[in-house]
Design brief:
Blueprint lengths: L2 E3 L3 E7 L3 H8 L11 E8 L5 E11 L2 E7 L3 H12 L5 E4 L6 E3 L6 H4 L4 E3 L9 E3 L9 H10 L21 H4 L12 H10 L4 E7 L10 E4 L2 E10 L2 E7 H10 L3 E3 L2 E2 L1 E3 L19
Parallel strand pairs: 3-8
Antiparallel strand pairs: 1-7, 2-5, 2-6, 3-4, 4-5, 7-9, 8-9, 10-13, 10-16, 11-12, 11-14, 12-13, 14-15
């Protein structure tokens, strides 16, 4: 069972009788279907629909939630949530201490090892990826965790996209449960809903592979001399890329190579996603 310490992450706790109502009204995740023992991705958006903060959210009891977020922006995240609190009966606080780790290929259930362990629903169930928020040790190299994310198309801000520059559809939140497309209003909901129903999501996260090592994260991806995106997390000959799939499809149709620097890329869609790069108009196709 590989396990890695995620020292760049921390936990924001929301508790109280109004915690679920507050979060349901401001974040993208549909909490009405969030079960005990699981963590789902989510985001707090700008009114224009772009991701301001991203996180993994899980329940900590009847009236409590754990928001697993980047440590470097946690204070700002707390301040922003506090602005929406108003008179709601909710306590918001950063966890003072704690060990946060991820493990996978674990044959035991979360409760057998650690009552704070939850299943990371961004990954296939059979991988048994867990987030743990209690004492433990991280034995795996952080690179092993990044390879796992690349293989399964799991994006994280900072590594794969910048805060304030990506829509939930860009990083596949419409595909992996990160946005509740049938829930009520939340900050930025009108933009996200319009993008979804009009099928205007052309920029998408894809998996990039090459026959030689990829250049560094942030390298522009080009097709026919035109920039169509950039590399995110990179590990050897594989990486994640956020790019215009309609332009990638045009390049493929014309036989033009798709390049990161001078390295030719082969692109694929994460296994959980229901769109294709070769869709005629670059839009998502319903499976």
């Amino acid at each position: 069972m590989p396990s890695v310490e995620l020292s760049d992450r921390t936990v924001l706790l929301a508790s109280g009788p109004d915690a679920e109502a507050l979060l349901q009204n401001v974040v993208t995740t549909d909490l009405s279907s969030l079960a005990e023992g699981e963590a789902r991705p989510g985001a707090l958006l700008t009114p224009q629909g772009k991701i301001l903060f991203d996180f993994l959210i899980s329940r900590t009891g009847k009236d409590g939630f754990r928001l697993d977020c980047r440590k470097d922006v946690a204070q700002d995240f707390l301040k922003r949530l506090t602005l929406y609190k108003l008179r709601a009966k909710v306590d918001l606080a950063l966890q003072d201490q704690g060990f946060l780790s991820a493990s996978w290929q674990d044959d035991s259930s979360p409760s057998e090892n650690d009552s704070s362990a939850v299943a990371d629903r961004r990954f296939p169930v059979e991988l048994k990826v867990r987030r743990r928020y209690g004492p433990g040790t991280g034995g795996a190299d952080k690179a092993a965790w990044e390879r796992l994310r690349i293989e399964h198309g799991v994006a994280e801000s900072g590594s794969d996209y910048a805060m304030g520059e990506a829509f939930p559809h860009d990083i596949l939140f419409d595909q992996n449960g990160g946005v509740g497309l049938k829930k009520g209003c939340y900050v930025g909901q009108e933009v996200v809903s319009r993008m979804h129903h009009r099928g205007t999501a052309r920029r998408r996260l894809v998996i990039a592979r090459a026959e030689s090592p990829l250049p560094p994260s942030g390298t522009e991806v080009t097709a026919a001399g035109r920039t169509i995106g950039a590399l995110g997390t990179v590990s050897g000959r594989e990486g994640l890329a956020l790019l215009r799939i309609d332009r990638a499809a045009e390049a493929a149709k014309e036989g033009a190579p798709i390049l990161a620097g001078d390295v030719a890329l082969a692109l694929s869609v994460p296994g959980y996603a229901n769109f294709t790069i070769s869709a005629p108009d670059g839009q998502a196709e319903t499976a």
